[in-house]
Amino acid sequence: MAKDPIKKADNGTYYFRANLGYHPVTGKQIQKYRSGFATKKEAREEYSKLILSSVKELDEKKNTVSFQTFIEDTYLPWYKTQVKESTYLNRYSTIQKHFAYFYKMATDEIEPIHVQSWQLELAKQFSPNYIHVVQGLLSLAFDRAIVLGIAKKNPSRMIGNIKSQKTQVDFWTLEEFQKVISLLYKGDYYEHYLFISFWVLFMTGMRIGEAAALLWSDIDFDTGLLSITKTMYYKSMDDFKPVEPKTQASVRTIYVDADTIRELKAWQEVQKKVLKNCDYVLSYNGIPTSKHTLPRALEKLAELAGVHRIKIHALRHSHASLLISMGENPLLIKERLGHEKIQTTLGTYGHLYPNTNLEVANKLTGVLQYTPATQSVADYTSNQHTAAYHKEVK
Description:
This protein is mainly alpha-helical. Helices cover 51% and strands 11% of the residues. The protein has 16 helices and 8 strands.
């Protein structure tokens, strides 16, 4: 015989603790406690009402889907078909890391207040621009949940995304880069590898992933043409592979200068003596350059050279700033860097053209020439009317 759930307290009132089963999403046991009933009958009536309402509520929740189940079983497989492989691989870990905040919640029970709390937690560790990107991914996930009928609203869009901040492009001037590169001794194999890696990044403007995927067969030493057709997905020394670039504009060919061709040939000869069959240009051990090796070395060299530290991607910005200082056209820079739109180039590097308006004004000076009139417009008009009158009279 089951125990009576209604208990009598020491003060003479009645109470109960109802076990209402397990939550369909979290799996946790649901219990509710009620006390202060004057009679056992009152307590039993309330207990019965609670049991009936809970059964109904749990029945309604049987069709709910936890956010973790939605993301891992439904959203990510679909998202993988919508973006480039490289984009998916790069964003997969970001999604798993930051969406975990909501994983134990039902997808349709996540409210704007939950997203706001999540925003505030992220703000303790990350920049506004990074949070802006991550929340953009969250909004896309909820959009998909609505389409599939798993959620009725998008709490991420309701709360609004955090405002991104326009960041100042960091770069090294030619003089600063020369200070750094001059510290490397090409007589040492590893330092020669660092030398050619930084040289190529600075002189071509390639992204680090593009440079890591560069093969010797991508370089035409006779014409100086360099083909950029892929980027490197690098997770570990045992897990890497070349993948398609993010956009079609990233697939491009660029001419490299004679000095860079000379340095590449010299590195190829050195690399062959150590690695008999290595296809990757930027490699000292037979596998593509690690995404950690070069940034660490660049940081140390900056300290030794007495210049400010920059991230490895800033060598790409340094190349662009060098071209701008040489007076190159933004359209040429767009093509060389592999930007999809000229707005990206101008939006990123437009501030590096500080004297553009002044130069335009200087060029416009003297373009328009003015020859002073010999009489006023009024006099000219009057004379025209008089001449017409005399002609008509005659």
